[in-house]
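Side project, low priority. Logging it here so it doesn't get lost.
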Amino acid sequence: ALFKCCIICYVQVELPRLITAVVVFLFVLFVCYRLCTCKCCMAATGTSLVVVFAVVFSLYLVNGGPLHASCTIDWGFSQNCSSVNASLIKQISKWNTSDNCKNGGEKCLYKFVSASKTELTATHTTPVHMYVDDLTFTFTDSQTPPTKCRVKAHSTSETWYAHLDFSTNYCNLRNLAEGAGLTELPNFTELTSDKICTQYSSRNCTKY
C-alpha cells in the first residue's frame, strides 16, 4: 500500500514538477544558444539541448504511449452517423452537472461545445481536481457493412504538462459512449492501444 501511495504521489506531484523543470531548462538553454556569441558556449549549449532531447525521447520510448496525456479511439457502428452524433450530444447534455458523480466516478461535468454533420466537440472536467479535457468526435460514413459509421474519438488534457492520466482520457470517451447505450448496439467495434491512448491497458472507468 505504501509503495502504491508513493507511485501515485510521484505521478501526480513530482512528475509534473520534473516535466516543468525540463521545459524551463530547455527554454533557458535555447535563449542562451540564441544569445551566445562564444563558440565554446554555443557548442556546450547545443550539446546540452541534444542530451536533454535524447533523455525525453528515451522516456517516450520506454513508456510507449503519447508524450501528452491523450487518447484516440476508432469506433464502428451499424447505425448511421447522424444517429450516433445525436446520441452523444444527448448524453453530454444529460451529464452536464456534477449530480451523477455524488457517489464517485467521473460520469459528469461534460460540456457541449459545437456540432456539425461530421464533427462534435465537447469538454469534460474531472470532478475532484477540476482538470479539463478536450473531446473531439469525427464522423465518417462507412461503405463496409455491417458498419455504417466510423467515429474517430479523441480526448486530450488541457493541462500542458500532463503525461500520465490513469486512463482518464480513454474513460472520457468510453463512458460517454456507454452512457448513450452505443457500446451495446449490434456490431459495435472499438480499436485503440497504449501507443495512442495513455494507460489504456490499466483502464478503470468505474473510477475514472
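Brief comment: Helices lie at 2-35, 39-63, 81-94, 168-179.
Revisit when time allows.
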